Amino acid sequence: MERQGGCACGAVRYVAEGGPLRVGMCHCLTCRKRHGAPCNAFAVFRSDKVRVEGETFAWATSERGRSHGCAVCGSPVFWREGEDEIELHLGGFDDTGRFIPQYEVWVKRREPWMMPLNVPQYAENRPAGLAT
Hints:
The chain is mainly beta. About 5% of the residues lie in helices and about 35% in strands.
């Protein structure tokens, strides 16, 4: 199954094939600041399962991570840390409600008015090697 999405103006489009490796929600300050939102909901795919078309620009958002946005409208489109995986923001998919977060990270930064999801909660990062 293919899932499509892109930026706000349509200059950048992507197609993700198959299912994601994991789906999560992050409340860290980096995600909050780079999205201008209280959290970032995302689906992680294998890089070889995602095609991106259109001109993007990248900026450092952590020591190893890079955000990629549309060169025309500036919308954040995806995030990468390494070459094996790509994190697509749930808000960029054309179909809403397609993915449900399986965990939340950096919940110590969650807005007090946001109710926790009924999924595993991690005060900071998710432990490496977990399936979800």
